[in-house]
Amino acid sequence: MGLFVSGGRAPEYLRYNQDLLRIVRHFFEAKKPVGVVCHGIEIVSAAGVIRGRTCTTVAKCALDVQQGEGKYVDCPMVKDGNMISARTWHDYAPFMHEFMKMLNAARHV
To answer: Per-residue pLDDT averaged across 47-56, rounded?
Structure first.
């Protein structure tokens, strides 16, 4: 089981939902695979789970990484522990390949 947090405009509003933030924290605490794309970083940052992690996202959301005390890098995909992040849907090829490997590995644990 894993969590996929997509981008778009919705995360700007969803990051205030306490039930969603609780669910996101659960996946990080349980070290289950988490995939985050684009503006989805706003949700994981609001959940307080990226402190000390290296992440990528669309450039205009770099501030959300910094405010969550993570490290922003501009590259197609970054894997840090149980989280994998991508800048935009344009980076889905390397992102999805790695995310599917993580999901498969978690299934066999």
So the answer is: 97
d(CA 37, CA 39): 6
Residue 56 · residue 63 · CB < 8 Å:
no
Q: Which domains does the chain possess?
A: 3-93 (3.40.50.880)
Per-residue model confidence as pLDDT tens digits over 57-87: 999 999 999 999 999 999 999 999 999 999 9
Give the CA angle between residues 30, 100, 89 to the nearest 5°: 105
Type of residue at 45: S
Q: Which residues are catalytic?
A: 39
Cα 75 from chain centroid (whole Å): 14
Q: How far is 27 from 91, CA to CA, in rounded Å?
A: 23
Rounded Cα gap, residues 87 and 68, in angstroms? 17
